[in-house]
From TrEMBL:
Species per Swiss-Prot/TrEMBL record: Streptomyces avermitilis
GO BP terms, alphabetized: cell wall organization; peptidoglycan biosynthetic process; regulation of cell shape
Name by which UniProt lists this protein: Peptidoglycan bridge formation glycyltransferase FemA/FemB family protein
Lineage: Bacteria, Bacillati, Actinomycetota, Actinomycetes, Kitasatosporales
Keywords assigned: Acyltransferase, Cell shape, Cell wall biogenesis/degradation, Peptidoglycan synthesis, Transferase
Any one Pfam family match given in the protein's UniProt record, by short name: FemAB
KW Metal-binding (keyword) present: no
One GO MF term: aminoacyltransferase activity
Family according to the record: Belongs to the FemABX family.
Length: 180
């Protein structure tokens, strides 16, 4: 099954996100409305082997924010906490390759995304205990109450595909306040 990426309407995007068990608020079209200096676009992933009015069934969606480079027609493309796709599929490149081709054709020189894949979770009790512990300064100082082993596999596959994990920048940097 091949996938095709193309722009979708706000309504299609919202309907898709509403049909998922969970999605970040940064992956709804209105998030793009509150980001000054960025141009927002909703993308859809279509399963071309599944017929339908647009030549396939909508199986993924993503809000892309484009930040222009001064005086050039080139852009940084950013998908905050997204896209909303099945991150645990074994053939992740089948999802990301058409996205990269589309974004490159739109003038993207770099793509930053935030896969919504949770590696560790902490129960409310663990967090409360950590707040009271003077030795715990950050959440990572606290033992997690649950781990998702598939998340490590996703990170490993992304690295093998050539994606790089960005390290947090200084307080004023692009990554400030953003997930790694």
């Amino acid at each position: 099954m091949s996938l095709r990426v193309q722009p979708i309407t706000r309504e299609e995007h919202l309907a898709f996100v509403a049909s998922r068990p969970s999605a970040s608020h940064m992956q709804v079209p209105s998030w793009g409305d509150v980001k000054p200096d960025w141009r927002a676009e909703s993308l859809g992933w279509y399963d071309e082997g599944d017929g339908g009015a647009r030549g396939g069934r909508l199986v993924g969606a993503g809000l892309v924010l484009f930040r222009p480079l001064p005086k050039l027609k080139r852009y940084l493309a950013y998908l905050p906490e997204g896209p909303v796709i099945d991150w645990y599929v074994p053939d992740l490149d089948r999802w990301l390759d058409p996205m990269l081709a589309y974004l490159k054709a739109r003038g993207a020189f770099s793509v930053k995304m935030g896969p919504p894949v949770v590696v560790r979770r902490w129960s409310a009790d663990a967090v409360k205990t950590a707040i009271a512990d003077p030795g715990a300064h950050r959440l990572r100082d606290v033992t997690a109450t649950a781990h998702e082993p598939r998340a490590f596999d996703v990170a490993d596959r992304l690295r093998r595909m050539g994606w790089q994990q960005t390290e947090p920048a200084g307080e004023d940097g692009f990554a400030a306040g953003q997930p790694r």
